[in-house]
């Protein structure tokens, strides 16, 4: 039996469930059950917070998971990306107040930057030779400049309307993300075979959508 962890409720949930169903896997999901078993494929589905999924997969509590690449890379563990899934596309970007002067990333030298992605941002800044003070906050990052916490932010953007609504201007895209299927590094041969079957079905679903 394979165990897959998906987001309980959020931007990935609906498409994750839809993809599993489109693979021909039947299960009855209900909002209060955190674990369900499929009836026609040896698969158990766990509903978790997305941030916890890479860790559970790395530790083998779940064999597979569906998360954004942003969460996988930020987690920095040993869970492996095995399949890009094409949904929940977004980007991780730096933004500054609309009126602030900004010519290049060098302008962030010595500045305070608020983010929920200190690893991704730290790696990017290091690659650019820029040193800044990173303030890690877990939500409502876009508010930081207006309350004097930071001169810039680094957060997920999709339409751009949240930045606009908070008087911010996107200045650099540092990472592009989409939902991915991840797997534990050392699956047994039996589980690996089930994963191959599941991936084959997922690829067929994606090809049919193109
Ligand atoms: O409760 P849990 O921890 O499970 O969920 P969560 O609140 O951490 O995550 P959730 O559901 O918001 O997002 C899950 C994943 O969806 C993210 O990790 C991304 O991979 C992906 N994704 C796609 C997004 C967005 N689009 C997105 N727009 N994640 C977040 N946003 C937020 C962003 O943080 C910002 O506040 O939406 C706002 C910007 O949106 P726009 O359209 O105004 O630019
Ligand atoms: Zn989360």
UniProtKB/TrEMBL annotation:
<keyword id="KW-0547">Nucleotide-binding</keyword>
<comment type="pathway">
    <text>Amino-acid biosynthesis; L-histidine biosynthesis; L-histidine from 5-phospho-alpha-D-ribose 1-diphosphate: step 1/9.</text>
</comment>
<protein>
    <recommendedName>
        <fullName>ATP phosphoribosyltransferase</fullName>
        <ecNumber>2.4.2.17</ecNumber>
    </recommendedName>
</protein>
<keyword id="KW-0328">Glycosyltransferase</keyword>
<keyword id="KW-0479">Metal-binding</keyword>
<keyword id="KW-0067">ATP-binding</keyword>
<keyword id="KW-0368">Histidine biosynthesis</keyword>
<dbReference type="GO" id="GO:0003879">
    <property type="term" value="F:ATP phosphoribosyltransferase activity"/>
</dbReference>
<keyword id="KW-0028">Amino-acid biosynthesis</keyword>
<feature type="domain" description="ATP phosphoribosyltransferase catalytic">
    <location>
        <begin position="49"/>
        <end position="203"/>
    </location>
</feature>
<keyword id="KW-0808">Transferase</keyword>
<keyword id="KW-0460">Magnesium</keyword>
<comment type="similarity">
    <text>Belongs to the ATP phosphoribosyltransferase family. Long subfamily.</text>
</comment>
<comment type="function">
    <text>Catalyzes the condensation of ATP and 5-phosphoribose 1-diphosphate to form N'-(5'-phosphoribosyl)-ATP (PR-ATP). Has a crucial role in the pathway because the rate of histidine biosynthesis seems to be controlled primarily by regulation of HisG enzymatic activity.</text>
</comment>
<keyword id="KW-0963">Cytoplasm</keyword>
């Amino acid at each position: 039996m394979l165990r897959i962890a998906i987001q309980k409720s959020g931007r990935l949930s609906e498409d994750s469930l839809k993809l599993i169903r489109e693979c021909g896997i039947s299960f009855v999901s209900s909002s209060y059950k955190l674990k369900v078993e499929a009836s026609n494929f040896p698969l158990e589905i766990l509903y978790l917070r997305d941030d916890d999924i890479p860790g559970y997969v790395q530790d083998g509590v779940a064999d597979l998971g569906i998360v954004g690449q942003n969460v996988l890379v930020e987690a920095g563990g040993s869970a492996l990306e095995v399949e890009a899934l094409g949904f929940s596309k977004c980007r991780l970007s730096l933004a500054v107040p609309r009126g602030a002067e900004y010519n290049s990333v060098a302008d962030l030298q010595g500045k305070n930057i608020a983010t929920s992605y200190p690893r991704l941002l730290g790696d990017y800044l290091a690659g650019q030779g820029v040193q800044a003070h990173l303030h890690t906050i877990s939500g409502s990052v876009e508010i930081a400049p207006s309350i004097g916490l930071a001169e810039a932010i680094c957060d997920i953007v999709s339409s751009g309307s949240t930045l606009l609504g908070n008087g911010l201007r996107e200045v650099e895209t540092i990472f592009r993300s989409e939902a991915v299927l991840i797997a534990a590094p050392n699956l047994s041969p039996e589980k690996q075979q089930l994963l191959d079957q599941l991936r084959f079905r997922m690829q067929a679903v994606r090809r049919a959508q193109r």
